[in-house]
Design brief:
alpha+beta, Beta-lactamase, five-stranded antiparallel sheet, two-stranded antiparallel ribbon, 9 helices, 9 strands, 38% helix
């Protein structure tokens, strides 16, 4: 027994000494505990990892699961009911909560859609850029065609300010800068826009501009715009911006401050109006994507090339609320 106890004490002492020596010399005390060695990652592999992380982040923040039908394919539920004259050649009324089409006219007709294009630009900017990120205005941005808010080359502006310029003022310079900041170039952003359109099932849509200022080859449909608006309104920040009537924003000198007035005349004048985007060019005519809610009912109305866009939108929304 004494010899056995002595053997146990010697064995324990040897194990303790081995552990102390291994710790002092930085070597693993167990053959299966391999030391961690840094792995060198190539630049292309790192780029792929970053792209995958970005895709996962976008997917995590997406308001709908990939493959979700944004609008239901059933026949318009209220198409048999009488409605006051709608002057727009293409229009649609949608239940935003369910995606059901309530009323439609030439909903899949492909038409130029002017600045309603900026709905997609805003969605992608919100999904890929932190709102607090400060970007340096590219020198080509102040030369953007027509409707500009007046961004200056090389000035530093946070993304959230550009979003107000994009969705309230409808600045084409804001659209171009957000495109460059999101994808690195205008061309790369157009690829991203069209890729997103395919992902959302927008089969009547093609983008050749981040702003819609150029009509050639840039088109969508009442159906696709309503589907896109439903997707966009599920993003809290997008919804918060487009329901704003007036935004007072501090700015760096020599500007000091800017005031953005929402061009959507339904905001503040139509009960429950909360979005979305206006548009006009000579070819597209007046386009309007409008949304409103009352009680538990939320509606989206789209009118394209309308001689009376606000009258048409009001009649469609009134019709929807009266029959919901």
């Amino acid at each position: 027994m004494l010899l056995f106890l002595l053997a146990v004490v010697v064995a324990a002492g040897s194990l303790a000494a081995t552990q102390r020596w291994a710790f002092a010399h930085g070597k693993p005390s167990h053959p299966k505990q391999a030391a961690l060695e840094p792995t060198v990652v190539s630049a292309p592999a790192l780029a792929r990892l970053r792209a995958q992380a970005s895709e996962l982040q976008v997917a995590a923040n997406a308001p709908f699961a990939r493959g979700t039908r944004l609008l239901l394919p059933a026949a318009p539920r209220l198409e048999q009911l009488p409605i006051r004259s709608i002057s727009a050649p293409a229009a649609i009324l949608v239940d935003r909560n369910t995606g059901a089409v309530l009323w439609a006219r030439r909903q899949h007709q492909r038409r130029p859609v002017a600045s309603t294009t900026k709905i997609m630009t805003g969605v992608l900017a919100l999904e890929h850029l932190p709102l607090t990120k400060v970007v340096r205005i590219n020198p080509i941005v102040p030369r953007a065609a027509l409707g500009r808010e007046g961004l200056r080359a090389h000035e530093h502006v946070p993304v959230w300010k550009l979003m107000y310029g994009l969705l309230l003022f409808s600045g084409n310079d804001d659209a171009l800068q957000l495109a460059i900041s999101t994808s690195g170039s205008r061309g790369a952003f157009l690829e991203l826009m069209n890729q997103k359109a395919r992902e959302l099932g927008l089969r009547d849509t093609q983008y050749t501009s981040p702003s819609g200022v150029v009509d050639r080859g840039n088109y969508s449909s009442a159906h696709d715009l309503a589907a896109l608006a439903r997707y966009a309104l599920a993003i809290p920040r997008f919804r918060a911006i487009t329901r704003t009537r007036v935004a007072h924003v501090k700015w760096a000198k020599p500007t000091f401050a800017k005031t953005y007035l929402n061009k959507n005349q339904l905001i503040g004048t139509y009960r429950g109006a909360d979005g979305v985007k206006t548009g006009w060019t000579t070819i597209a005519g007046h386009c309007l994507v409008a949304s409103a809610h009352r009680g538990g009912t939320s509606l989206i109305a789209v009118v394209l090339h309308s001689p009376n866009p606000y009258g048409d939108a009001r009649r469609l929304l009134n019709f929807g609320f009266a029959n919901s």
